[in-house]
Amino acid sequence: MAIPVAQWVADARAKLTLAEHICNDANTYITTSNEKLQLRNRKVPKLLYFLDALQQQIQLLTVIRDSLVLNLNSVMERRSAVRSGLLRDVDRLQNTISVMKNTTVVFDGETSLFDYISEAGIEDLFADVEQNIKEIDSLVKGNRTDALLIRLSSDLDNLNNEMNTLISKAHDLRLLDDQDDLDEFVDPITKLLEINNELENEMVGMLTGFNNHYDQCEKGQKLLEDPSFPEDEKEELVTVLENDVEDLPEVMRSLKSTGDVITKNCKEVIKILDIFETLYGLVEKFIDELQQYGEQKLVVQLNEFVEINSEVGRKLEASEIHKASLAQYNDDFQQFIRSYYSLIVEVDRRAQVNQQLTMAINNFKATVNSIVDNDYEKRLEFLDKHGDFIPQNLIDPQIINSTTPQIEIAFDHEPLPPLTKDAIQTAKKFLR
């Protein structure tokens, strides 16, 4: 029986070539995946740093937004307090003015207390207060501040959503652990690489086997053609080559299977690395987007907030001035009303003094008249008894013949307007 050693050599050469091709393909995938992996490994620290920095920036923007909200709420509370105070002071002053308008001056019975003040300044103050309130309301109503907050919150929500998406993708790649610790890195393809390393070693062994088989076939062909080579050793060599030939298909299937597994693993690694590259690109894009937002929109929004806050501050300062003017007017008018009623009480007091002086003078006149009358009677009695017996040159005759001294009492009453009891009681009641 002829031994097909030449066919074995040809088949061994063909299978070795195929095995080399399979190994080369696997090696190409391994090389590509390793290159991408090295690139990824250089970028991972940057990516983790970017994610950490971006999260801090988002947190800072949230703090800025919350601070602006608190600041605006503070301004709103101050505006509300000042506005309420202004309206309250306006009501007080208007009530005081109403009292003045309804208070008829008792001295003429025609005019009111309001007729004695300048109305122009008050009307101007009321107009200024009304305009001031309108301007403040227009600054803090929905057409400006609310819209600004909505835009800022919407922008921040969008940035937060994008950031959360990036963090989620990083978790999917197992770049971050479950606690969002950006310093912890878990390689997602370590297991695949370990498997590939083992399979690669197996392929090297199988390729070496194909190469050895080819060498044995070539050597066997030469030995079988050598007449000096012993027949028993030829038979043993043929048996070995036949066994190797029978094993070749199974080894080839194993090599192909191993190559397919390596290729599949490498494709999975490349897929993961490509996803990483996509994430890295998205992070870089988000960095640019965040920078543009900060340099363009955020600056404009913050400037608008500062402008509104400053403008409201100026309006509130004007409100405080108006509030002080309203309080001053009200105090002055209240004092004017008290002074008016105090004047009524004072006039009444002086009228009572007039009465008291009149009574005192009348009592004094009565006493004097009694003294004069008694003196007159005593003078007549003296003259009747002694007048004829006293010589004219004993004393000055005028002393003997003088009349009772005359006393003239003049009292000018202070001219005061008449007051009714109701007017006096009303004044005293008001001043209690």
Keywords:
single chain; about 425 residues; mainly alpha; rod-shaped; coiled coil; Atg17; ATG17-like_dom; protein kinase activator activity; molecular adaptor activity
What would your notes on this structure say?
The protein is mostly helical and 432 residues long. The chain has two domains: 5-336, Substrate Binding Domain Of Dnak, Chain:A, Domain 2 (Up-down Bundle); 342-430. It has seven helices and no strands. Helix 1 (5-101) packs parallel to helix 5 and helix 4 packs antiparallel against helix 5. The protein is rod-shaped, with a radius of gyration of 61 Å. Residues 16-390 form the Autophagy protein ATG17-like domain. One of its GO terms (molecular function) is molecular adaptor activity.
- Per the CATH scheme, the topology name of the largest domain is Substrate Binding Domain Of Dnak, Chain:A, Domain 2
Based on secondary structure, the structural category is mainly alpha
Stretches where pLDDT falls below 50 for ≥5 residues? none
Q: State Rg.
A: 61 Å
Which architecture of the largest domain per CATH?
Up-down Bundle
Coiled coil: 149-176
InterPro entries: Atg17 (IPR007240), ATG17-like_dom (IPR045326)
Domain Autophagy protein ATG17-like: 16-390
Family: Belongs to the ATG17 family.
Short description:
The chain has 432 residues and is an all-alpha fold. The chain has 7 helices and no strands.
